[in-house]
Amino acid sequence: MLVTGGFAGERATVSSNRPLWQPKRPEFPRLDSARLVRGELVSVDFVHRAGEFRASGNGELVDFVLPPYGNVHYQNAEADLRDLPLGCEFQFSIIPDAGEGVARVLTMQDQFTLDASHNVTNQLVTEQQRKKFIEFTKYRGLPGWVEKSETNTLTVILFSGDASDFQKRWMNDFVVGKEIQVVVANDELRTWNPPVDNERGTLLAIEKASTDGYGSSGVRLVFTVRNMLEGFRKGRVVRVFGKGWPVKDPFYGESLMNYGYSRIQTSELLECVAKEYPEQFPFRTDYGNAGLPWYQLKPGQTAPRFSEHLVLGEIVQVDAGARNGRFRRDRTGEIVDFTLIPEGSVRYLNADAGLADLPTGIRCRFHLYQDETGAFTRASLVSDEFTFLASNLLTYRVEALNLAEDTVCVARQIPEVQNYNGDM
Amino acid sequence: MIAQVMRASLSLLLCLSVSGSARSAEPVSTEGFETIVKPFFSQHCIQCHGEKKQKGDLRVDTLKIDFESPKIMGQWEEIMNRINSGEMPPEKETRPRPDDVARMAEWITARLQEASAAGQSGLGERIAFRKLSREEYANSIRDLLGVTFNITDPTGLPEDPDWQGFQRIGSVLTLSPAHVEKYLAAAEMVLDEALGLGTLPQRKVIHWSPFEIRVWEQFEKEYQARGIADKVRVDLVPNNGALDDRTLEIKTTGDYLVRVKTSGLRPAGGRAPRLRLYAGDLSRVLFEQDIEAPEDQPATIEFRTHLPAGSHPIRIVNAVPGPNPEDRRSRASDTRNAFTDLRTRIPWQMKFTDDEGRPIVPFLLLDSIEWEGPLGDSWPTKAHQEIFFGGESATNDLGYAHEIIARFAARAWRRPVNGPEVDRLVKLVEQTQKLGDNFEVSVKTALVAVLCSKSFLYLEEGNPIARSEKLTDYELASRLSYFLWSSMPDERLLNLARDGQLHQTGILRDEVHRMLANAKAAEFASTFPRQWLQLRKVGMFPPDKVLYPEYDDYLENSMTGETVGFFAEVLKRNASLREFLDSDWTLLNERLANHYGIPEVVGERMRVVALKPENHRGGLLTQGAILSLTSDGTRHRPVHRGVWVLESIIGKPPPPPPANVPPLNTPAPTAPKTTLRAKLEQHRADPNCAACHKKIDPLGMAFDNYDAIGRWRTVETVRNGTGADPALDPSGELSDGRAFADAAALKRILADDVDKFAAAFTEKLATYAFRRGMTFADRLELKRVVAESKANQYQLASLIELLVTSDLFLKP
Fold first, then answer.
1. How many domains does chain B have?
2. What's the CATH number where B232 sits?
C-alpha cells in the first residue's frame, strides 16, 4: 500500500536570497521564463507552501515549493494549498530545477480554471472559493515584498495571481491618507506575532506597478511606519492589512512564534534558523550555504543542529552487533551502506531502540554525515516515520480509500491548539 | 564646652565638640540705619509699635541689631516679611512707597545675612571646629592610607548640607549619630583595605562572555558545536532596557582594572553610542564613554575602579537618549539566535542598519568585559609597611604600639601629638589584646579610633587655654591644604609648619605656587566653582523628557564640565576674573558643541574653543550649566536667573519672596501666545512686587534668548494660545538706569563693573577658604585684597595668592 501526502521527507526548502532562480529580488520572473507541466497533486505541506506532484507522462514524482509570490488557482479563483484536494490534476508553471531537486511553482491551475466555463453552477463554486480565499487573506494580510525602504517610508509591491482583478477586489480597503498596518513575514508568508509586531503607518500612495511577471499584482503601496524593522528590507516579504481587517496571531503551526499558544511548538513548525539565518552556520546545511563544505563529525563532540544531511529510505538489512546496515534510498532506489556512529541513536515507535528493533522494509529517516571519502554513510540518528510524526504531534486523516488502485489518500493534520484568543 | 563621646562597647574613642561659648560683641554695620530704617519706622510703624503702643508686643523705636539674639533677629525677619507682603502697615494706613519697602527689605536682608555669617565665624570661641566635608574626608584617607573611599556608596557618607551653595561651612556641617556610625564603619573599612591584614588576596580575572551578559548560556554549547561561539556578541541599542543586570561578585575590596572589548557604530550625522557601566547597589556610574570602533575592529577600553567586596548588580547600558528600539525584545523569542553579526537580527526587531549595512542608530557590539583585581602594588601593602614600620623583625610589644600610634596620629591629625593622647589609644591596644586579638588587629583598633577622633574629622583652630590671634603654623598648613587641595597637608607643608616657617609671606607665596601646580589642585578648581556657582542644582529638576528629549546625563555632565573646566582654565592661565563675565573662548566637547550649534568639535574630551559673536556664548553667564540650573525642568525662569546673578555674580542676595505669591496665570487657549516676560510683567503689576523685581528681573530676562536647557533661540515656544510663537525681548534696564539690548550687552556692563564682581568673588573665595560666611569685620581686609588684586587685573591665581598671604588668612 502506498501512502502519499504528509511532510515530504527529503526536501531542501528554499532559502531566502538564493540567487539561482530569482537573481534580483524584488523582481518577478518574466512570463516567458516558466515551463508548463501537468501533474497530479500527491501531497501538500501548506504551512511551508510545498508539496509533491506526479508528472503526467513520465510519472516522475516532483517536489515543489511555492515562492512567496507563487499562486494557486482552483475552481477559477485564487486558493491556498490547503484548499486543494489531493489527486486533482493541475497545470504547473515551474522554473526548472535549479539543482536541488525542487521545482519552483510560479502558478498552478486546475482544469476547471483553465476551462473557465461560465455556467451557473460553476460560478457559484467559483464564488465560494473566492470568498474563502478573501477571508483567508484578510486574516493573514495581503503579501508583498519591499521594493524600497527609506528613513520611515516603505514601498511594497503586492503579490497576486490575478492582477486584472486585484485593484477592484482589494484596494477599497486601502485609503490614501489613512492608517495601514504591516507585519514582517518570511518566504513561506508566515508571520511571527502580528498583534505585537505590526507597525502602524499612513498610506501615502497607491501606485500602478508593472504586471509583466509572475505574481505581481500590479499595485504598489507607499506608506510610512513608526519604526523601521529588520524585516523591512528590500526584497523581504511583508503582509499588509486593510481597513477593518483583523490583525491576529496566525493559527498554531502557521505562526513562526509560539506566542500565545498553550503548547510548545514542534521543531517542524518553528522558524527554521538554518534556512532564515544561514550566516549562523559556518557549514552547509540542507537549508542553505550551498557553497560551504558539510559539517565533519568530530569524535566526542555532539554535532550541532542542522548539520545533518537528511535522507529517507527503507531498511534493507541491519547488523546490530556491527552497528551498521543498508537502506534503499527513496526515489532513486540507490542502496546506501550506513554505520551508526558511537554516539548515534535509534528511535522506533517514538521510543529509544536499537538497530535490531527496526523491521526490514520500514521507511526511516537517516541523519547522515560524510565519511573520509565524502560519502554520506555515518548516521547519528535513525528513526522511523512514526517517531517523526509522533514527536511533531502530526497525524494523517484518511481522505479516500482507493482499493482498486491499492492506494489511500490522506491529509496531514497539525495538532489542534487554542491560542489565548480561543482561536484554533 | 567640649563633649566627649565614648563608645566603650567598641573600645573606640570619638571626640567631638560643639561650640557655644560666650562671644565677644560682633562688630555690626549700622550703615543705612539712620537714613533708611529710622525714617520708615517713624513714618509707618511707630504709631502702633512705639513708645505708647506696642501692638503684638513689638516696639520698633528701640529695636537694635543684635546678631547674638535669635529673638531680635527673628523680629527683624518678621518685620521684613510683613512689610514685604504688604500686610504691614495695615490697609487703613498710608501705603509706604514701594521703593521704600524694597530698600527696607534689602537692608534687613543684608543684616540677617551678616548675622548668619557672624554665627559661623566662631569669633569669641577659643577653638573653632570645622568638620571636613565628605570629599575632604575621602581625599585625606587617600593621602593617608592610599585607598579609595567612595563617598556616595551606601558605605559612604551623607551629603553635606550647604549654605549659599558652600558645602563646607563649619557651623553648618553638623555631626549626627548617623555620622558617628558611618565614620566608625568607614574607618574599619579603609584600614582593612589599606593594611590588608590576613591572607594575601588573589588577583583574579572575572571574564564575562556575551553568553553570560546576554543570559544566552543555553546557546553556548550549541554555538561551540557550530564553531562560532567566539563570534557571538552583545548588541546594545540605545536605552537597552531589556538587558538584565549582571551580578559581579567581588571577594576583596580594592581597585580593579576593567577591560571592555566592544565595537561602537555611529550613524552618519548622529551621535556615537555611549557605553555606561552602572553599579546599582552603589548608585555609582563606574564608567561612561562614547565608543567608536568598526564592527570588525573592536576597541578594548580599560579603566580602573574601586569596588567594595560584595555582590554588585552591574547594568550595561548604551546611554544614548531616544526611543528604545529594543522594546520589541521584551518578549521571549523562539528564534534561538545569539547575535553574531548584523544579519542575525530577527525580522521583527528594530533595524540597526540601512540596506547598505550602514548604521542608522548608535549601537554597541560588546565582546567581553573583564574585571581584574584587586590590584595591589606590593604585599604587605604600602600602608602596612609604613604603619608597621619596624617590619617583621620588630617586637610586637606595647612600646612598639605606642610608637606606631604616635606616628600615625601625628600624620592623621596633621599636628604633633602629646603623650596622654597616645597613651589613651595604647590602652585600647592592651584591652583588645586581652580580648584575644593579635597585635596587628589590636593596633588597627587604635588606628580606627585615630580616624574617628575629632582631630582627624575636624579642622581645629585655636587652643583651649587662651584665645589666639594667629593660627599656628600647623593650623595654617591644614587651612591652606584643605583650601587648595581639599585634603591633608603633605610632608613638605608639615615640615615647614614644624620649622615654624610656613607663616612667612615669601614661603606662603611659594607654597601657593607649588600647590596650584600640583595635580591635587584640581580639587579646588572643581569644588570651588561647583559650590560658588551652585552647580549642584544642575539637573536637580530633570528637564521634561517630552519637551527636551535630547537632554541626557552626558549633556548634563558636559555642561557642568564646561563651567568647571572654564574655571580651571582661567586658573591655569592666571587670567583675569573678567573672563568669568565675558570671554571669546570656552571649553566644549562634541556633545555640548552640538547643543550650542557650534560645528567641528569632535569627541568627548573638553577642549578650548574660540567663540564668535554669532555663537552667543562667552563667560559663565551664557554657559549651559548656569542657564539650566535655574530652570524648573519645563521652562526657563527669568526671576530665578536674576536671583542667581544677584547671589553669585553681584554678591547681593535679594530679599526672599513674600508669602502667598499667586502662580502665573495660564492664558486662555483662545488668547494669542505671549512670552513669559509679558506674563511676568502682568503678574507684578503690584507695585509692592515691582520694587524688588525691578532689580531682579532684568538680570534674568536678559537671558531669555536661552531656553531651559540653555539653547539659543529667538522666539519662545509657547504651548497655550493661538498664533505664532512670540519673539523674545531680552532688553532691560538696571536699577541705576543703564540700559542694555540683550545678554551680550548686559555682559559688557557687568564686565565694566569688574571691580564690583571682584569684590563679590573674593568674598566667595574667602567663604570657601575660611569655611564661614564673611562678616562686617572681614570687609576691610577683603577690600584691601581686592584693591591689590586690581593692580594685576584681577588675575585669579594671583588673587588666591593675595588672599593666602593676607592677614585674614592667618587669623583664626
1. 4
2. 2.60.120.260
CATH assignment of A141-241?
Answer: 2.40.30
Thinking of the domain A2-115, which architecture would CATH place it in? Answer: Beta Barrel (2.40)
Question: CB B345 to CB A149 under 8 A?
Answer: no
Closest CA to B520 of B481, B493, B494, B492: B481
B325 to A277: CB separation less than 8 angstroms, yes or no: no
Instruction: Give the residue from B232, B233, B335, B342 with the most A CB atoms within 10 Å of its CB, the best one to mutate.
Output: B335
CB A364 within 8 A of CB A382: yes
β-bridge partners, B359: B353
- Centre a 10 Å sphere on the Cβ of residue B600 and count the other Cβ atoms it contains: 7
> What is the chain A residue with the closest CA to B228?
A282
Interchain proximity B225–A303, CB inside 8 Å: yes
Q: Measure the CA–CA gap between B803 and B782, rounded to whole angstroms.
A: 8
Point out the residue among B331, B341, B345 whose CB comes nearest to the CB of A230.
B345
Question: Which grid cell sits at B299?
Answer: 576597541
Residues 6+ apart with CB under 8 A from B577: B570, B754, B757, B758, B761, B794, B795, B796, B799
Q: What angle do CA B688, B693, B698 make, to 5 degrees?
A: 155
By Cβ distance, the residue of B221, B331, B347 closest to A230 is B347
Q: Give B223→chain A minimum CA distance, Å.
A: 8
Do B655 and B542 lie in one domain? The reply is yes
Closest CA to A390 of A348, A421, A360, A356: A348
pLDDT averaged per 10 residues, chain B (length 812)? 32 36 52 85 86 82 79 81 80 82 84 77 72 96 96 92 89 85 95 87 92 86 92 85 81 95 93 93 94 95 95 92 59 74 83 85 93 87 93 92 97 95 96 94 96 95 81 96 98 97 96 97 97 93 88 94 98 97 96 95 95 96 94 88 93 79 74 83 73 86 94 89 89 89 95 94 96 85 95 96 95 85
> In whole angstroms, what is the distance from residue B763 CA to residue B590 CA?
35
Three-state DSSP class for residue A129: helix
Distance between CA atoms of B297 and B656, rounded to whole angstroms? 59
- Residue B635 and residue B768 in one domain: no
Domain shared by B257 and B359, yes or no: yes
The span from the CA of B505 to the CA of B511, in Å, is 10
- Cα–Cα distance for residue pair B503/B472, rounded to 1 Å: 8
Residues in chain A: 424
Q: Are B211 and B219 in contact (CB under 8 A)?
A: yes
Q: Domain spanning A308-391 has what CATH number?
A: 2.40.50.320
Find all residues with CB under 8 Å of B364, minimum gap 6, and list them: B234, B235, B236, B262, B263, B264, B265, B273, B275, B291, B318
Interface test with B, best of A155, A187, A226, A230 (most B CBs within 10 A): A230
Distance between CA atoms of residues A283 and A278, nearest Å: 9
List, in order, residues 6 or more apart from B797 with CB less than 8 Å away. Answer: B512, B516, B571, B574
How would you write B170-199 as a 3-class SS string?
Answer: CCCCCCCHHHHHHHHHHHHHHHHHHHCCCC
Element containing residue A293 per DSSP (H, E): none
Chain B closest-CA separation from residue A91 CA (Å): 34
- Please state, in angstroms and as integers, the Cα–Cα distance from residue A231 to each residue in B96, B527, B659, following that order: 75, 52, 61
Query: Cβ of A301 and B225 within 8 Å?
Result: yes
Grid cell listed for B4: 566627649
Partner-chain residue, chosen from A149, A193, A281, that has the shortest CB–CB distance to B226: A281
Q: Per the CB < 8 Å rule, is A304 touching B225?
A: yes
Q: How far apart are CA B255 and CA B754, in angstroms?
A: 46
Percent share of chain A, pLDDT over 70:
90
Asked if the domains at A141-241 and A308-391 fall in one CATH topology, the answer is no
Closest CA to A415 of A271, A194, A251: A251
